[in-house]
Fold this sequence. Notes:
CATH topology: Arc Repressor Mutant, subunit A
Number of strands: 0
CATH class: Mainly Alpha
CATH superfamily: Homeodomain-like
Radius of gyration: 13 Å
Distance between the termini: 22 Å
Shape: globular
Largest sheet: none
Amino acid sequence: MLIPVRCFSCNNPVSEKWGEFQERVSKGEDAGRVLNELGVDRICCRRMFLGNVDLIEEVKSYRRY
């Protein structure tokens, strides 16, 4: 849903790079190359970016009764 502030495994900050990553990948750049340029080298941090599915727009439409 939302990108975590820090990596669950190594505790490196990842949320500060999410905006640029999402913007560049949406323009058609290769995700692996973008992560390399942003300095995300560890596999545990890379999975935070590649495994995240942005579902916030879908969840917002549901109402709690």
